[in-house]
Amino acid sequence: MAAGVVMTNGGGQSQYSGKMTPFVVLSCMVAAMGGVIFGYDIGISGGVTSMEPFLEKFFPEVYTKMKHDTKISNYCKFDSQLLTSFTSSLYVAGLVASFFASSVTRTFGRKPSILAGGAAFLAGAALGGSALNVYMLIFGRILLGVGVGFANQAVPLYLSEMAPPRHRGAINIGFQLCVGIGVLSANLINYGTEKIEGGWGWRISLAMAAVPASMLTLGALFLPETPNSLIQRKNDPQKAKLMLQKVRGTDDVEPELDDLIKASAVSKNIKHPFKKIIKRQYRPQLVMAIAIPFFQQVTGINVISFYAPVLFLALGLGESAALLSAILTSFVGTFSTFISMLVVDKLGRKTLFLCGGIQMFLSQILVGGIMAAKLGDHGEISRGYAYFVLVLICVYVAGFAWSWGPLGWLVPSEIFPLEIRSAGQSITVAVGFLFTFIIAQTFLEMLCHFEAGIFFFFGGWVVVMTSFVYLLLPETKNVPIEQMERVWREHWFWKRIVGEIGDEESKIQEL
Fold first, then answer.
1. Most buried of 98, 225, 385, 407, CB within 10 angstroms?
2. What residue range is the signal peptide (predicted)?
3. pLDDT tens-digit profile of 288-313?
4. pTM confidence score
5. Backbone angles phi, psi at 226, to 5 degrees
6. Helices 22-31 and 134-162 meet at what angle, rounded to 10?
């Protein structure tokens, strides 16, 4: 950042002391429960919308088309704006909440934002599980969105600030791993509740969101604040030093503390971070804050995350088989995210981005080709091809889960200097929610009109985003979070905008 930070060696890696401590691990495990509530909601919404009793009660038009209209296309059975509003209303609420969360996170700290997120999600789970009509259902989704908006804004920041630099990737990916665990848990619960006689199992699915929300809310009460936030808000270096010594497991924290103090000094002069982030010296971070969450959403992952059971129903699998297939894909995703956690700080961010992009593109093209050739507007695909499509979708999910899934959260959370960090993370979350909403609201209609071409549409975007990463994203592994500006000043393209290493002093004068 433009605060005159001195690198301690030529390789771009700091000589900060410290190790992975149990204190850091436990704190980050609690914070990462914010990922579980997000993942649980993603998984649960797709599952309950494939349950016939749920559709019959809240969306009778869709139920009638699915059960009795033999003339309607396989691709159009679930096309309903009201049904997509049930899914997408959460993301509108999350988008708005993320901007309020920015002020809370900056002014009061990361911990209060996490606490607020857990409490709002808990209220939304209670309302959804007890819903008597579609309005209660959607209002409950809005409260869930507020909870997710606060959690997604604060948790990745918390994880990146607490983690030692050389383990930051693995710890931050813990958030996405928890998202995967949430999706898997939701699919398992949906598979069980779908079999409950009486048709009320969907209520358990929706209400069970209260379990991870309670764990996050109660756990947040005992979370420590990050050293970065303590210095930024209270200007108390001694208290921050004690916390830093505790989380790093060593008394030798002076180099890291000095960097935090310098970063905070710059931050104190920034009264309007949203105005500051559009300045030229922050152009690379702003571009990434917008591009990365946008690209994450147009990978097509929402085809699987929101509507996997619906998609498998369209392929001709039964209701239980469709839910079981969703469990399989979410298990593959969770396991692949764990693999990413193990290798991200060794292989680097760009390698995983590029490998995952190639893997997603190839599987999407094959899925689109099979559906175009074998699934018509009416009837069903053969069981053999249906399972082949399932295998290809697992390959796709694995590619996403060790690339754009976790790295879409990790990279934005680690590239912002302290003075614009909260604002930058809010922009990242808001852009993600905006395009999640757009995809969620339009996907079923796009599926109806594009048919199998929907996979080629998303495959084209994967080519674009993979090229973007290859050309414009510098490698950030092992770079301390308060010394990240160096990667932009050394990059072949961005150094033309922010200046080279030798120009750093002139940039300091601008502040």
1. 98
2. none
3. 999 999 999 899 886 666 556 666 66
4. 0.76
5. -75, 150
6. 160
